[in-house]
Every structure is written in C-alpha cells, then in structure tokens.
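cron nightly-structures :: item 1 of 1
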Amino acid sequence: MELDRAREFVRHNHRAVMATRSSTGVHQSPVVVGVDEEGRLTVSSRETAYKTRHLREDPWVQLCVLPDAFFGAWVYVEGEAEVVSLPEAMEPLVEYYRGISGEADDWDDYRAGMERERRVLIRVTPRRAGPDLQG
C-alpha cells in the first residue's frame, strides 16, 4: 500500500492498536492516532507510559488502525517513532487534538491538562503500510 493512501485512511480513522518492543517482547496498547502536516502519524501519551519508555529505547513501532465500528477496512503501518516531551510538545499536542477533535472549549485548560499529565507527542515516520490485498 502506498504510504499516502495509509495516511489518508488515518486522517478519517483514529482508533488504533500500537505495538512497541522491549527486552521482554512486543507490547500492544490502544491509542488515538492522527496525521501531522508533515505526514507523520501522531499519538499522545504520557512521559511515564510503558510505550513511551519502550520507544525511547527502540523506536520501532507498528500501528493497526481501525474504523470506529471496528469491522471493515483497516490499515497496518510500520515505522520509526520519535518521542517529543514538553515544553516542545505543547503546540504539536494542540495540533494533534485539532486534527482529531476540532477546537477545544478552553485551550488554556487543555494546555494545563497536558502539563499536569506530563504528556508527550509520539511522531511516527511511516516506512511500510498495508494491506494491499485481502484474502
């Protein structure tokens, strides 16, 4: 699958399962995913989350992006992740929210929540995507 087709799917479908690696194996977690202006997939996480720790040690990541209804078309994306911490992550976190949910009722409250929760932004540069065929 062309990466641009995968990005377009993600722009309209934000539910995903993220897989990361650690010394004990592969770990999965549910996430909400968006696409930034540079075509990277984006995920909000916490500084203390296991996925954040795993990606700091090994930037390999896989995402299985699903529609809200769960059944139907889906996209697999594999890539390399970068973890961006606060304060650098603040404006990208605002753009992440806007791209998925639109305007917040109170951006000051949103920013305070990002600081309180020690949020990070995970940027995924896609390297491969699929499926191209269905069996």
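cron nightly-structures :: done
The radius of gyration is 15 Å.
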